[in-house]
From TrEMBL:
Record domain AAA+ ATPase: where: 66-187
Keywords noted in UniProt: ATP-binding, Nucleotide-binding
Family (UniProt): Belongs to the AAA ATPase family. RarA/MGS1/WRNIP1 subfamily.
Biological processes per GO annotation: DNA synthesis involved in DNA repair; DNA-templated DNA replication
UniProt-listed SMART domains: AAA (SM00382)
Highest taxon above the source species: Bacteria
The name this protein goes by in its record: Replication-associated recombination protein A
Span of the signal peptide: none
InterPro entries assigned to the protein according to its UniProt record, in alphabetical order: AAA+_ATPase, AAA_assoc_2, AAA_ATPase_RarA/MGS1/WRNIP1, ATPase_AAA_core, DNA_pol3_clamp-load_cplx_C, MgsA_C, P-loop_NTPase
Disordered: annotated span: 1-25, 44-71
Molecular-function GO terms, alphabetical: ATP binding; ATP hydrolysis activity; DNA binding; enzyme activator activity; single-stranded DNA helicase activity
Organism expressing this protein natively: Streptomyces sporangiiformans
Amino acid sequence: MEPDLFTAAAEERQEKDPSSSPLAVRMRPRTLDEVVGQQHLLKPGSPLRRLVGEGDRAGGGQSPAGPSSVILWGPPGTGKTTLAYVVSKATNKRFVELSAITAGVKEVRAVIDGARRATGGFGKETVLFLDEIHRFSKAQQDSLLPAVENRWVTLIAATTENPYFSVISPLLSRSLLLTLEPLTDDDVRGLLKRALADERGLKGAVALPEDTEEHLLRIAGGDARRALTALEAAAGSALDKGETEVTLQTLEETVDRAAVKYDRDGDQHYDVASALIKSIRGSDVDAALHYLARMIEAGEDPRFIARRLMISASEDIGLADPNALPIAVAAAQAVAMIGFPEAALTLSHATIALALAPKSNAATTAIGAAMEDVRKGHAGTVPPHLRDGHYKGAAKLGHAQGYVYPHDLPEGIAPQQYAPDALKDREYYTPTRHGAEARYADAVEWTRKHLGRGRS
């Protein structure tokens, strides 16, 4: 199957009849200067600036050739595809988009072969944008290495998952890793104002009152495409009615969503969500239900609420109540299937369970401490007796030699070193004795003692 491709013909059609394209497409940034948000990546002399050949504009000097592979890591809706497209436009390169969900090695090789032929024939070079790269297997990611090493394509890969765990080391080491941040309301607001006035957009045909703008920002939830799609639909409805501004009522009717009834004293979308989680953390079930009700009545996306509850279950409850996370996950799955209004019952169920559960942040602090050590370089090599010994030649290297199989011992625990030398005495998990975590505290004390690491 032919990869998704912004062809020259498609671009020509858009230029001849821009009104035929959705507003989000018409307002696609043409340069890095038009990109909203991600200002930490767009400073003069930044890697992205060098990638498009701008060099260090602050210093006025020449920059070395930019990287041929970039990995963009960030949540959905933060502009990963947009950045890749802008790079292709700024460098006058062909833009080819593949999704790891539907593409395989065959499609990747077809793009690479086409890029080599185009380059060899003095045609346009190619930017290959690979979305959801974390869904590619190791072998599929390996197929990208020759193209990256030989600069046959400029690879820009996008992922919503930590690339240190989802991207193979050879590709990661050859790539520039850029972390994208969620768009702020101010970022989306600026984009809306541009779309209202720009010749590519609505050309000043309608105005957007403050209350309508605020509701539109809440609907968008930091997603630029969602904001522009809703604006286009509401503006079209207003113009059909002969109106010159998009009223709150028109927006509500268009997107079929009630206006968020938050007051203007800072008590908005994220503040109420924060209050919900902090009330759960503080075990105030009534306050938690109050904030939940406000979010429901405001027309908040039930999936957003469910995601916050899942985070709370691990962050603030953990093993003090091992059932908290399964309840939150089940609630999220139910919400996705049934939606409002019935989802309100499910969210109430989960909120009450979490608010009344015993609390512990021991799991949160444990992984935080472990990750901090890794960031500081406190890693070291895996002890030889723990290494993989299943392949030919492993024994000659001493791998897996001396490993004691815990199930062969009466108590099921083998007193041998598991952590690297530099961390052999490091303790990350400090359980509380709240709720069910008391038994985990006993288990930790017993196992560390039998491993020869018990505290005196």
